[in-house]
Write a structure and sequence with these properties.
By secondary structure, the protein is of the alpha+beta class. Helices cover 24% and strands 24% of the residues. The structure holds a DNA duplex (16 and 16 nucleotides).
Length: 263
Amino acid sequence: MPELPEVESIRRQLDPWLAGHQVLSSNSHASAKFAPAEEIVGMTIESVKRRGKYLLFDLDDNREMVIHLGMTGQLIPVKDLSDPYLRAWWEIDDGTFLGFRDVRRFGRIRIAVNGVYEGTLAQLGPEPLSDAFTPEHLYAACKRSTRKIKTQLLSQKPVAGVGNIYADEACFRSGIYPGLRKITKDQARRLHDEIRNVLLVALGNGGTTLRDYVNAEGKKGQNQEFLLCYGRWNEPCLICGTVLQRTVLDGRGTTYCRNCQSR
DNA sequence: ACTACGTCCTGCGAGC
DNA sequence: TGCTCGCAGGACGTAG
């Protein structure tokens, strides 16, 4: 599932490819989730930005195309427009085609006008790698809610861009049980530090490819080799050797160490 | 306003 | 071997 490191890896490749180029034509899957793709025909992509897990294609005419990759979304150059999983494509004025491939169709495309956003994007917490994201901010944000700490992270409100993989990793590395509904200031500081740490390392490794993720060159990431917790249930904790547990928290599969992660 | 849970979607792995 | 069934999950809709 593409989270901040994966989406940022894609952005870094899309921007030099697409910036300054005009969209000549487009097509999209019948679903309303993808139909807005066609609204940008004739517009010029000025840059490709990112907020949390959202890609923002900055267009002329005060518009932005907002793309969320969902679970299995890929943005890749395509030659075969008959790929059955291609949900949208755009013809670029350099002769290439950008494709949005999304097997499970959890992704979505929207057009925002004058920077006005809706839904989760409008309520996104600070960028985790920016100065706005501090331990104090995380502590205060988590204190406002009684929900489980992992559920709060996945809500994108205390901080933007963290999904299931990096939430489990950050909780593990900071020694915090993800089902906690209250954390101390010290726990918030550790969680803050480890959120940054796991995202930065993953970015450096080109993202995590468990199944579908590829960057905008169609290449897999390497960070799956470095995960300490996510997906390792029934395997020994790399810190203490205890067999890692798997549970479901608010409908999300969660791996943790019952010894290292305090409850 | 907030929390919890169902829904979307399809490939895949487990189990018979 | 071949089939059915349930699972995976981010954001959003809805109920309480």
